[in-house]
Amino acid sequence: MGRALITLTTVLALISFTGCADNKLLRAKSGNAGSTDGPYGIKEMVVSDMSGGFSDFSYGAVSSYPGAYATISGLGIPTHVKGHWSKNPESTTDSPVYYRIDSVIDSTLAFEKMKALNNAYENFEPSSASVQVVVDKAHLRIFYTFSCFNSYDDCSKKEGSDPNGWIVRSPTDLTDVVVLFSGNGESSLTPFPTSPYDKRIIRAVNVGETVVSEATFQDMDSVNHQVTDQIVLPTAFSVIWRKKLNPEAGFSDWQFDNYQLAGDFPAQDMMEESIQAYRNAMVGYVKTSTFDIFAEEDNLFITYSAACLTEKAGERCKVIEDPQKRWRYFDELGRYALVLFEGKGEQFAGE
After folding, report:
1. Strands, E, within 57-192: which ranges?
2. pTM
């Protein structure tokens, strides 16, 4: 009973605090995204709060603290953070490192820390608040600050205002912050599938008079995905396509050969190994990738391919030939593609 009462009291305090008159002092209207160990690229960084709102700190290239700045919609007590970021190598012989995080934030503790900072100063009256996202390799921290600077503000604190030692100095030792979150994400030498660095989209490609009319991929969790969906790795497929036999005829007189085919893909570890080998063979910047479905007559192809550009505008990157012949150039796609499946369909009578 006592524990339930304490929990209810905490929840009511949070609700009343987020709705009180000085809510403007708590809700951050500005945000920073930066680092403490050199350049990074932040492609996704979403922090959600108790109200159901969120702020996006995907500010792109950052290289220092506090880093890039932007106004935000008014972030309250944070509850969750999800993001992807990367660090480019210092040497051209090294590979980039990719990071991701998807973590719950202790909103009760965050609330107490924000309140402690809000009530800490003797004479300084905060007029605005900032939330700062700071990366250091896989380590991610979220700061909350009023940007009180001793050089032109009276930042003296009330005696006993911080018994828990939550108020600390910023990485540059210029102002006070409280750390609302500190945790480690995952790291990888290859982009995480379906992340902003490796979006894998199912795409149907029409070749001449041959059109893919239906296509379904099944993933490792037996969930079905359709054309334009994202998928990490498919395990099985079902495709229907048709070829127009008399394109010169009027719409009502068109005739078609109809084909269908269903099957399984290679083992997932083998498929992912081949995908990474293909991506590493590209000399340039790999962009969005696709699982392509196309057919020629009764022959069905399912491939993996990626857009790749160089530093020269409009120039496509070179692809190193594969000794195992796992990928080749397809005129139908206008680029090199990794062959995942090739086989003949079964003809059936259409409507």
Report:
1. 60-62, 68-75, 78-87, 97-104, 130-136, 139-145, 167-169, 176-184, 186-188
2. 0.74
